Amino acid sequence: MSVTITTTGTNNNPKMHILAPDAKIFIIGMDYNGWTFDITGDPEKPFICHSIFRNCTIIADNLRAFNGCYFDDSCKLIIKNLPRADTPQTTHSINSINWNVVQDRGTDFKKPKHLKFCYQTAGMKCNEGRHAQVVMKELGIDYQLSTPQSLGDSFWFWNCSNIPEPLPDYLSELSVDPMSCIGQGLNQKDAESIRDFKGNNQ
Asked: What angle do the packed helices 132-139 and 119-126 form, to 10 degrees?
């Protein structure tokens, strides 16, 4: 069993070619900016773990190489072999964070979002009377933190991933800076952790 890694390119456009039919090495805790990764082969287990990718292009047969990684919204992903040629778009998952994959083009990484659960809309319009956290679990939505908002009869969920489309009427995207919410359900430490969030498995 062998793994071959070669680096090419220039300082402004570095490239890493990985031949990993059955990877037994680990790339852990790295921070890559502007790299192109070309991964050939079907690794038995993830071997690129807890690393950060910024403005990178990932070319791979599948996504099994990755575990606990963060990809910023400038990254591009190209899957070499989609299941069917007549299916132009499919969704793959890297550790609870979704990529929309378009063959031969790649696409932007989907950043986690903040969501607002409105109890009034849930009860009056959707006949949903359960606790917001119970509903989020049933919907399969992961989140970093949640804070009740008694004045607005709502629950705020921070850095959500695995978000279904379309969202139920009682869930909407929340555009708010967590640092501005200190004292309104968040303390300084929580606000900073939301601001600096990298991924659910970090």
From this structure: 70
